[in-house]
Amino acid sequence: LVSCAKRAKTPNSELAVCRVLLAELEAHQDAWPFLSPVKLKSVPGYRKVIKKPMDFFTIKEKLINNMYLNQENFIIDVNLVFDNCQKFNEDDSEIGQAGHRMKRFFDKRWTELLRK
Ligand SMILES: Cc1ncccc1N[C@@H](C)c1cnc2ccsc2c1
Q: Which of 39, 49, 95 most suits a substitution to test ligand 1, by most atoms within 8 Å of the C-beta?
């Protein structure tokens, strides 16, 4: 008997979960610092310190333009948003606190949705 191959998730069903997750991130009350790209001209030092800026709007554009081949690449970009935030903002700052809350929310949700 040939063992049936583990049903691979089709890329589009994987990415459908990413779209759901992103919508939840954007709707979160603490999402405000991350909804659009940091304006490099108006935040002194940001361009120098943060090598790979990322934000939820850019992630949405990449999803729409099929630039994510799988969930992993999507999760890497979402974590980049939070890693950049922790690098540039003090933990006890408004933005720093929002970043920690958003990261905790994301970690919880993607584990629930993807670790089925
Ligand atoms: C995520 C992040 N990290 C470091 C600096 C800025 C930001 N966010 C931008 C949108 C931003 C840019 N300007 C302001 C002014 C008050 S909150 C806020 C937020």
A: 95
Predicted confidence pLDDT, tens digits, the chain (116 residues): 566 655 566 678 889 999 999 999 999 999 999 999 999 999 999 999 999 999 999 999 999 999 999 999 999 999 999 999 999 999 999 999 999 999 999 999 999 987 76
Binding site membership of 59 for ligand 1 (Cβ less than 6 Å): no
* ipTM exceeding 0.95, yes/no: no
Q: Provide the greatest CA pair distance for the chain.
A: 65
38 lines ligand 1 (CB under 6 A): yes
Task: Based on DSSP, count helices (H) and strands (E) in the chain, helices before strands.
Answer: 5, 0
Q: Are 55 and 36 contacting, i.e. CB atoms less than 8 angstroms apart?
A: yes
The phi and psi torsions of 58 (rounded to 5 degrees) equal -60, -40
71 CA distance to ligand 1 middle (Å): 27
CB 107 within 8 A of CB 113: no
What tokens were used for 100?
A: 């920690």
